[in-house]
Amino acid sequence: MANRETERWLVSGGVTRRRCLGMGASVALLGVSPAWATSDEILVFVHPSNVVRDLEASELEQIFASQRLHWASGRRILPFNLPPHSVDRERFDRAVLGLAPDEVARFWIDRRIRGGSPPPRQVPTPELAVRVVASVPEAIAYAPASFVSEDVRAVARIVDGRVRS
Amino acid sequence: MSRSWIMWGSAWALALSATSARAQPATSEGAAPDESTVAPSRNEEGPNPKPAELDTASGQRLKKQAASLQRLEREVAKQAAALAALQASADSAAAETFDSSSFAEAFRLYGFTDMGFQKIWWASDVVPAQLGATRASTFVLGNLNLYFDAAPLPEWRALTEVRLTTYPDGNPISLADPFGGRYARASSEVTDQNSAGGPWNRVKTGAIVLERAHIDWLGFNWLSVRTGLWLTPYGIWNVDHGSPTLIALMPPQFILQEIFPERQLGVQAFGAVYAGAWQFGYAAYVSNGRLHGQQDWSEGKMLGGRLQAQVTTPYPLTVGVSGFSGKDTDVERRITGFSPFATEELTTISADEWGLAGDVSLDVGDLRLRSEFVLNSKDYQNGKRPLVWNVPGTGDPDGLRWSTYALAAYRLPWLGLEPYVFLDLSAIASPEGQGVSGTSAGLNVHLSSSATFKAQYSQARFVDFVDRGHSHAGSGNRLLSTRLVLAF
After folding, report:
1. pLDDT tens track for B53-75
2. 3-class DSSP assignment, residue B11
3. B340 preceded by cis ω (within 30°)?
4. How close B355 comes to chain A (CA, Å)?
5. Phi-psi category of residue A8: left, alpha or beta, with phi > 0 → left and psi -120 to 50 → alpha
6. Which chain A residues are closer than 8 Å to B11 by Cβ?
7. How far apart, in whole angstroms, are the C-alpha atoms of residue A26 and residue B18?
8. B residues 174-213 closer than 8 Å to A (CB)
9. Cβ of B103 and A23 within 8 Å?
């Protein structure tokens, strides 16, 4: 029951960008950011139990375009996106998929019409992305470095619009 | 909903506390004081008040300040209680855990629709112009396709796509002829017996076209299995399939003539392996082949597949080859006796056939290039070949048929405009010529990511590659077609 309620909340999309930024500021004030992270970085992270150590740009693209569906272990990949039009989502899509926001929407319409796999699920905030990945071994998500805690493991970084392992 | 408000409130409270924490030292370091501290300082700089006036003024100010203090104390107490509640809620949320089943997306419904306006200018004497198509301009209901996409478990998916139509109403059935035959169109009109208006109300029923319906097992990246009715995995057009995704409106001849079967009923394995930025995909299938009715009429199953290489950097590029081999068979049954009742099965169509196809798709910035080549060979048994366009006295010939197209589209930086040119050539014999050539120019206006206005002007001609004396070679039609397309 609790999970269902959480899921409804996750997909409700009711959290605005302003609220996300507000929460981001609050978490940053709590001092969660790793010492080596810079404020402009986006980190892509997985569950600590995942055997994957790093991911190339092409692998990230295949995962977040719902083309590569399974981890090497055979388990189904559960990718999570931040909400469309959030600053970090736009930065991620440009760096990983090479697409601007309107192109991303068009990309997923094309995929749908062709019968392709559905897009990644969405989490409303970076903070929640971290919590979800920390709890789900199959999950992968991304968030600004200041949100990322030691409960997850970073496998790629996006700096200056480019993916770095 | 309430939880998101709670989190927002929590963040706001934290931000407030941080702001005040920063503000205090700033004030002590000589930064501009706030209004409450500015007022007394003005008084100090003015003329000295008398003692009685001072007492009265001070008393009033003290009363005000005391009231204000009480109000603030109440507010602080309220905030403290709210903060405690938020903390409790945050602790509870932090303790909550997720698993993969928390994110199962059991069912999605989506689709697309398009409708528009078109006119075909027929050369007056070619056969298709005489079989019932209108010569007038007309509004048309194009597609209304719905997708039912169910994924009850992570590794399982059932996808059904249906097209809602108003067919068969209005479909020409027969032409009037000098021997008493009458012109007839199908009618699906029925009395709306459930109408509150009584039995006078009439409605036209429509038909549902099953575009695809299959179950997928998504076991591994390199192996998934699909069973049911699926679109044949070949080329670009047959997979792109819907008006929101296709660049051009008019299909190439190999789609119209179905040189490859458009969809098949059977089982298919598919998957992909990855090497750096490259993705190598495959599909391999066994099926009933071309569908004449609901079941296969021979043991000769169709075998086919596709190999595909795809990369997205530096430019999105996909190259694919596809092929199939199988039998095309249809039968009819004839009663040969009544006591006992007996029938015999007569084969009406019997052909061995194979097909090969190649396709390339390349995007360079705003330029989109697409091209396909499709080849098919059919070898009929004598007397077991279908009519061409249902014209009596004709028979689909043995031999090779091929069809190809090239398309180039460029997205301009203004108003979502995307003009394109489309060239189509095929060698598919008909009573009017050995093949058909098509030349088109079109314009897509991308109104938003999900809405597009499309227009295309085409000229198609029957052609003879060597002079066979077809009287209509060089004739054909011109077509202006428009559609407003919306994906949802």
Report:
1. 657 778 888 888 999 999 999 99
2. helix
3. yes
4. 22
5. alpha
6. 19, 22-23, 25-26
7. 9
8. 212
9. no
